[in-house]
Amino acid sequence: MNADRWLLVVLVVGAALAVLRLAVGHLRATPDARPAAWRTCALVALTLASTVLLFRGLLPPPVAVERGTLAVLTAGAEGLAVPAAETVVALPEAGDMPPGAERMPDLATALRRHADARALVVVGHGLDARDRDAVDGRALAFVPAELPAGVVELVAPDHIGAGARFDVRGRVAGIEAARVSLMDPAGRLVSNVEADDAGRFRLDATAREAGATLFDVVVHDADAREIERVQVPVIVDAAAPLRVLLIAGAPNPDVRALRRWAEDAGLRLRWRTTFGGGAGVGDAPALDAASLAQQDLVLLDARAWDGLGAGARASLLTAVRGGLGLLIHTPQAPSAALRGWLRSAGLTIETGRAVDWQPDVGPDDVARLRAWMGPGSDDAPFDPLLAGKAAPTLAYLPLSGGAAAPGDGPSGMMRWQEVGHGRLGVVTLADSWQLPLAGRADLHAGLWSGWAGTLARVGDVQPPRFDGEFRVGTRSTVCGLDADARVHAPDGTTSTPVPDPATNDCAGIWPTVAGWHRVESGAGDWPFLVRADGAAVSLHVAALQSATRALARASDATPDTMTATRPGRAWPWLLAWLCVTAALWALGRARAGRNRVPAPSSGA
């Protein structure tokens, strides 16, 4: 209960006791000494009036006041009409100020100097991170400036594995028939597309060796003039190689192709192929709890699963629930026993009729295909004759149920489900070995690497989350850091992230130089890119406008509809209380309305 409620309770109780005293005194008096009824009623009315006036004097009711609207000019406000407002201020990013505007170092200072401002109108590109907290729930309207021509949206993967295929997606604005290209760190063209009618594009490339590298997204107009070049940070993790267990129920070409893929990808592979009658070849251990705890992923074909005993199947399911990844390869329709086992584990699937699928072979230009595939190796060098050559047509059984795996294949080719702390998946692609046989080991590796990355056991160390873009002079947020985390800048300086009290595990950093920075803590270290102040201008402006629109949507009102109030004046109520209380005091002491008690007669 707040102080206002306590004051009301105290006054009500006091008034009730005073009225009760008057009523009891009136009823208990003898008929000869009882005061007139009008006197008691007047005293009760004055008591209640005094109580009400005292409450209003201590807490006067709010009164409506003329709303104070503050127009805030930001970068890009030049040439825009400034809405009608009592006060106009310009933040440091704003250009030329209109007559009468005040230059302010930040929004918080402007609001301190104009404390009566109840509503804000932001004009231009929007508020920087420095100024957003100062809004503090005030009504806010946004008059955006036109976005500069260039890349206004850009989405790239945070962390990927070596040899994995990745996408770079985004949107361009203000350019008709824009052509967007992706250049690798060596300046070679990897992928290029024409943006659609909405300006959206999707580019793809292949990650190479572990480390932090910079790709470039280059935007050209219809006349092939370069409009903008935006750096895209690509971080290829140097994680410990996955521990993979491959078990096949019979010799087949897929086993050989998978073994070669694991070798090229640097995986720690153990495998076994059975011949029937207990015979087999390979170094795979038994499927017991101790052996499965040492693996990150088990690749098992349906024939091998059918040959497992009840104990091995139970051990597999227990290991999956403990964090192991399991992928069952079933090019034919799975048996009823396998379906039932999958259902008991939490993955209910249905298969359709077989359909054909032909992978995307990439660019038909030799130079671009070389950049897309990589230079190859000594025993499998890049073949220029592959440019424009179609890939083999493969078949698969479409699956429904579970979740679709990311990657280059159709969504129904592989489905998976979280089971406890691990993941269980089923893939129905047949004869994927034909891809490396046709010289496209990269397509084969892209498929199986994507599925392995989806299902494999998750490591104990999770990388921090880098929210938004990082830019010189702008506050940025990193979440999931340890208390001992430090940020190392490319100029050799070291800083400590400042914890954000509004969140549990996030902290703010203020970069002062551009380039690759590194967050270091006891759990590891992770690189991140800080852009220069003038880099990727369109992307930065779009981020400012998006954040300001979010503030406008979150406000409870708008400048046109918000009603502002302030506490009313107390002195009229207190003056009235003083007059009524004086009247109550005077009437309580006056003899008006009192019955005279006759004096007793003396005996003769």
UniProtKB/TrEMBL annotation:
Bilayer-spanning residue ranges: 6-24, 36-59, 570-588
Keywords: Membrane, Transmembrane, Transmembrane helix
Full protein name: Carboxypeptidase regulatory-like domain-containing protein
Protein source organism: Luteimonas fraxinea
